[in-house]
Amino acid sequence: MTDAMSNALKTVVDANAAVDDDQNRAELHFDGESFPEGQQRLQLLADQAVQALSTNNAPQARSLIGQALHSVQDFYSHTNWVELGNTGPHPSLGVAGISLNRLDANVATCSDCSFDVSSTCNNCNGNLATNQLTSGYYHGENRVKPNARKCSHGGGIDYYPPIASFPLTARYGINKDSRSCDLSPHYFYHERAADLAVGGSKQYIDMIRKRLTDSQLRNLFGVDQAASVYSTSGTTSKVRRALGVESSQNFKRDDGVTDETYMVELGKRTTRITFMNHQSHSLHRRDQSEDSLAGLFNAITSTSRGDYLFVYSDVQSSVSALDAGLIGTLALIRQVRIFAFITTNNTSNSSALDPDLFDAIHASGGQVFLLADSEIDLTPTIISTLLRDDGVDIARLATSGSVAQNVTVPIDSTLHNVTFSVAGTSDATVYKPEGTSISLKDDGLNVVTLGKGLFVTMTDPVPGNWTVNFPATVEASSQISLTVSGSSTMDFDFSFNVLTGRPDHQGYSPIRGFPTANINNLVSATIDTLPSSLNGTIKVYYRDVNNSNAVPFNLTLINEANVTADGSLANLTYYSNGTNSNVLPHEDFYVYMTGPDDGNGHAFQRLHPHMFHASYIGISAPRGSTIHPGSHRNLTILVSNQAPTAVNISLYLSDGAGWLVAQEGQESIGNGQLLVQLNGLATNATREIPMSLSVPTNADLGSTNALSVIASSFSLEGDDDDTEDEDSSADVNFTFISQWVVNGTAMDDVFYYNGTVGGDSSGLDNY
Questions:
Q1: Fewest CB atoms less than 10 Å from the CB: which of 202, 216, 277, 532?
Q2: CA-CA distance, 412 to 462, in Å (whole number)?
Q3: Residue 631 within any structural domain of the chain
């Protein structure tokens, strides 16, 4: 499975898990005999997934299918389909044009369970009282149990209060979610329900597959090598010529602006290249020309998880620190890497590049190359190399040209090729383990030399410690970066996590922002494949951005790895369960994994490509929800301070559709934009921030909206130049809440950060 296919699958899995965040709507889980509503939802999700693929929006289609599959799987766990003796999936589930009905409210479906004296659990083996399709009612959902003779969902968390009008009967339920009798009264049917859920999922996907073209199907599963290109108008024609565009297909997005997708030959593979219309991906800044790079934020929202975003520009525009922070954070959340090719007539003047934009792009796992116009034709070689299968990251560095440095890079025996990518200078030397520098006469060597860069790829590199030398240059302000990547089946995934999901259905999901400093963080790491030759202690640790001060994470191996045919170990998972101490200092850092190689004294090293930041400001927010036309929704976010002293925190809240309504003490600074000031938030203190959304009655069914939250401990008030308080204690954190599907179906994470803020006295006036 390639990286693109793996990332496509992760999007489906994440969307599936997120459905359990909604404890209110029974049709999401086929609870409470919500068969008509659940069936209609599955049909609608299938239609929307097909529509999304017709407009080249594979991320949204994957999310829609993930949400639908959760409901399909819950159907077999929450209904009595298994108990009715069925050995195959329901043939009509999710099928267009077919309705599913529910039993009348007065039809009894369950009796109470009996107490089993030989067990700590109740005996629910005979509590079903119908041979017709039914499902259990779960407390707190919108389908309220009509009487005591209906089945419950059951489990330790599901209960009904014993009141006179509603005696505590039929309370033990029929769910088959687990093998535990405490959580699942029909635990003895769990395996059968799981098998049918697998079959039902295949049936639903196959139903969608039959409605897709071959190209749409390949796009859905991430089969084709793919990348996105964002170019300003002055470079677009040159870029298209360099990439050898031959055929195209235009895709019109929901906002009515057309992007263009091309199938081109890059290297030895056909690659799907999507050109993003720069006018549609702007932040709508008041002072922004069509050639501004500030639109990177919205461009990232249109990419798939794990994508590469290649930016071409002939302008070296500035972005504010908040813009840069948003770009870097959203790239981290969506696992998107940004590589920028900026053409300039003076490549020696690298100091002209905006340092905040440089930092944001580098934090995404990418680089900034300054090129002469003639060097655009060299970029397809760089792109095709970066889009390799089984790509892994090994080392990174960002520095200035004033300090000489030697960077040691462990190259292990599993790497089929390795690339040393240097941006900001061509004055760098790569040394082999034996101490000699690479030569153009070396076998398997490919070198692309730029005016201010070096791109070196070596096939079958010799294992050992390679070295990259950067001499001190006269350009003290030069922005220099190094990334080392390669091809290997051994990689790792890493995330900071939070506990999500409804009671009895909880799990850990990646946080949507930065981790918090000075508190214990939940951490997980998974190694894809560990070859049998790499036996020994695996370490996962973090280093600061200067490549020093390595600190290990305190993790526990939680699963027995699968042993493959060649003796390799697959899917080793490590995590911290809350008792492991993983307190982070307030700093920027990278996460690495290391271990022994083949017993010859070599080591392997892998790097999570994105830079993390441990913030003093903590933000806790709901992951997402659904909403309907004409309705109102009240939400609460929690903001905490882990700094050693009290701080003043400014919160900027915005949503793309203008549904936010100011509460008492909140300042409305534009349509759907609020400013909230928290003064003197003490150390270790937490403050609740209420939010209210009001959806117009004419809101389009199927439309989406999203809320972005920015919390900063420097003042958001400044002048028109977007200057911020330069206090060294200034800090920032972000979160994004995917909302609000007005037809009751959760959509993909579509993030908005736009609008016009009135008043020249606001530091946000350009957003």
A1: 532
A2: 8
A3: yes
Query: What share of the chain has pLDDT > 90, as a percent?
Result: 27
CA distance 497 to 349: 42
Specify the amino acid at residue 396: R
Partnered with residue 654 across adjacent β-strands are 673, 708
Residue 767 pLDDT more than 50? no
Nearest to 7 by CA among 513, 506, 387, 572: 387
C-alpha distances (whole Å) from 249 to each of 252, 263, 324 are 10, 9, 32
pLDDT digits (tens, 9 = 90+) for 464-483: 999 999 887 645 557 888 99
- Verify that 404 and 383 share a domain, yes or no: no
Confidence (pLDDT) at 283: 36
DSSP secondary structure letter of residue 152: B
d(CA 283, CA 751): 11
Please, are residues 490 and 403 in contact by the beta-carbon 8 Å criterion? no
- Distance, in Å, from the CA atom of 145 to the CA atom of 554, rounded to the nearest integer, reads 46
For the chain, counts of helices (H) and of strands (E): 10, 38
| Distance, C-alpha 497 to centroid of its chain | 12
Q: Looking at the structure, do residues 204 and 234 belong to the same domain, yes or no?
A: no
SS3 175: coil
Asked, for residue 762, whether it belongs to a domain, the answer is: no
What pLDDT, on a 0 to 100 scale, did the predictor assign at position 90?
98
pTM: 0.78
**How far is residue 597's CA from residue 532's CA, in Å, rounded to a whole number?**
10
Contacts of residue 603, defined as CB under 8 A and 6 or more positions apart, other chains included, come to: 410, 412, 465, 594, 595, 596, 597
Average pLDDT, the chain: 79
Report how far residue 348's alpha carbon sits from residue 402's, in angstroms, rounded to the nearest whole number.
15
Helix (H) or strand (E) holding 455: strand 453-459
- Cα distance between residue 288 and residue 283, in whole Å: 8
Asked if 190 and 83 touch (Cβ cutoff 8 Å), the reply is no
Question: In 3D, which of 363, 335, 358 has the Cα closest to residue 545?
Answer: 363
Alpha-carbon gap, residue 142 to 148, rounded angstroms: 17
Rounded to whole angstroms, the Cα distance separating 642 from 523 reads 19
Domain coverage including residue 644: 617-741
**Same domain membership, residue 45 and residue 192:** yes
Beta strand 539-544 with 588-596 is antiparallel
More confident residue, 22 or 424: 424
- Residue showing tokens 């001190």: 472
Q: Give the H/E segment covering residue 342.
A: strand 337-343
- Three-state DSSP at 168 gives coil
Residue 372 burial (10 A CB sphere; 0-12, 13-18, 19+): middle
Please identify which residue in the block is written with the tokens 């006469």. Answer: 441
Question: Which residue shows structure tokens 């039914």?
Answer: 134
Residue 433 buriedness (CB in 10 A; 0-12 / 13-18 / 19+): middle
Within a domain: 758: no
Q: Rounded to an integer, what distance in angstroms lies between the CA atom of residue 736 and that of residue 739?
A: 9
Nearest to 93 by CA among 200, 243, 230: 200
How many Cα atoms are found within 13 Å in the side-chain-facing hemisphere of 519? 19
Rounded CA-CA distance 321/544 in Å is 20
Asked if 619 and 513 count as a contact pair (C-beta separation under 8 A), the reply is yes
CATH (domain of 302): 3.40.50
Same domain, residue pair 197 and 230: no
Q: Examine residue 38 and state whether it is found in any structural domain, yes or no.
A: yes
